[in-house]
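This entry is passed on directly below:
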Amino acid sequence: MANILVTGTTGFVGANMAKFLSEEKDHSIIGIRHDNSPIDAARLLGIDNRVTWTYGDVLDANFVKRVVNDYEIDEIYHFAALPIVRIAGRSPVPVFETNIAGTWNVLEAARDRGIEEIRVVHCSTDKAYGDTVQRKPYRESQGVGVSEIYGTSKAAADLIAQSYALNYGMKVAVVRPCNMFGPADSNPRIIPNTIRLCLQGKNPVIFRGIGYVREYIFVEDAVDGLYKVMRGLRESSAKGEVFNLGTGWAFDQVQIIKKILRFFPDRKAVVRDPSEYMKREIKYQKLDSSKIRTWFGWRPKQTLDRGLKKTIEWWKGRPDLTGKAINFTR
């Protein structure tokens, strides 16, 4: 049986990863709960009793080391991060602390564990690449770049993770997914915001003059890709490697909202002026994900429409959340 630590277990992606792993009988899942919010993603997905919970913070290096050693951790999926781009732009220091120092604390705890076979998959983001050149898809070989605060923090964490693999021979890999969506994402992002507005009987919002393009992946496909990379680490083939994780489905805000509105034919988008910060985001993001497909045979199992339908159905089953006020930080 593998003892698996999932950091960021109460967040959207970490909780979906823990759910995926909990369906495998040979895993013991350890999670970190920073506070006791009644609506964190693990509780929303109904997996609270499938996880052995510890209580603390990834910024507490001694706490992370105790967890990794006391629970004899074999594998770590590192998701703990502050992930919202515009919030990061307003308050950069906590983002740098959590996304960078939190990462080296996890890596140091893994190194301190003192066993050769411990494996770490660090979940990054396509935003670590910075702006594209001539709207070409990002390739792993081009390296990271400077961009907005969140992307820069993840780029720094990626380099640290790769450095631990290089300098200490650790089984560490970096995965850079595109924009993930799915059940239990209550963050202020375009897909959950649009779905919730429609379910409230309101019209979704398009921001005037914003033509940025983003690639999307359903969260179940994303965690499957992360799992395949971890399996590669077990065989040592993925050590020190970086893998893009995307579907090729890239849309601007108008296009993705139109796709959601096909499930809500009585709704029509309204136009608003964007915030100043919104105008400074990366303009085009799309990944070349041929490496993970070639190395591990990964393919998305869900179409965009099926993923959207599953997400909408999940939100329909949570009227307690659907009716809450919506934050337009996207």
Remarks:
- The longest strand covers residues 27-33.
